[in-house]
Amino acid sequence: MTLAVVSLSGGLDSCVTAAIAQAEGFDLALLHADYGQRTEARERRAFTDIADHFGVPAPRRLVVDFTGLRVIGGSALTDASIAVPEGDLSRAGVPSTYVPFRNAHLLSTATSWAEVIGAKAIFVGFVEEDSSGYPDCHEAFLKSFEATANLGTKPETRLAFHAPLIHLRKSEIVKRGLELHAPLHLSWSCYQNEDKACGACDSCLLRLRGFKEAGVADPIAYAFIPEDLKP
């Protein structure tokens, strides 16, 4: 059995990433983080539903508490006093939804767990197209972290870090997920709603655009869909 730790937020990208890791022959160990985000409960449900779909046993599911990131603040996702901005796919710079250095916490925890359970790989759903300017979603950051992780772990650990979606457009990710029969209907991407996706935040707009360009309807429910993104 060759294990891979997959960082699974419950979003579209991490759902497809898990499907890719399984298709490549890895047994999955799924890592999820609660960090005080607005949709924490809904993302946790998506994580559980996706883990059930892939048949991952309880000992290979890890939910970690990163609520220190909420205490630190500085992000619209963790601080209720900062409004989630209206979606704007042409916006430049780092938006207020960036959670400072969050992915370093995720990768560090994934590395620690991988070393303990003997995993050989770590998979993440980083996508440069929809990183929204987030500096910790880029390939250069991941490569740098891989080097750091292998310097700081036992010589026999030797972890390979994979971001199979890093250079894909969202429409290509949707198509890849459909090819692999990934449970896209169980995933959740909205930044601010937990019942019906808002259809207005950056994450919803990117997702809706991806499904529209892929020529298929998004299987999750929306409170609102912009006219130009309707299937």
Task: Looking at this protein, list some descriptive labels.
Rossmann fold; alpha/beta; 5-stranded parallel sheet; 231 residues
Largest sheet, strands/sense/barrel:
5 strands, parallel
**Amount of beta strand:** 5-15%
Secondary-structure content class: alpha/beta
Cα distance, first to last residue?
Answer: 41 Å
- Count the strands? 5
CATH structural architecture = 3-Layer(aba) Sandwich
Element-by-element helix/strand order: EHEHEHHEHEHH
Task: Determine the number of helices (DSSP H or I, runs of at least 4 residues).
Answer: 7
CATH overall fold name: Rossmann fold
CA gyration radius, whole angstroms: 17 Å
**Which strands sit side by side, in order, in the main sheet?**
3-2-1-4-5
Number of domain units: 1
Mean pLDDT: 94
Under CATH at level 1, the class stands as Alpha Beta
CATH superfamily: HUPs
Which segments are poorly predicted (pLDDT under 50) over 5 or more consecutive residues?
none
Please give a structural write-up:
By secondary structure, the protein is an alpha/beta fold. The protein has a single domain (3-192), classed as HUPs (Rossmann fold, 3-Layer(aba) Sandwich). 36% of the residues lie in helices and 10% in strands. The protein has 7 helices and 5 strands; from the N terminus they run βαβαβααβαβαα. It has helices spanning 12-23, 40-53, 68-72, 102-117, 139-151, 170-179, 202-214, and strands spanning 3-7, 27-34, 61-65, 121-123, 160-162. It has a 5-stranded parallel sheet, with helices on both faces. Helix 2 links the parallel strand 2 and strand 3. The longest helix has 16 residues, at 102-117. It is globular, with a radius of gyration of 17 Å.
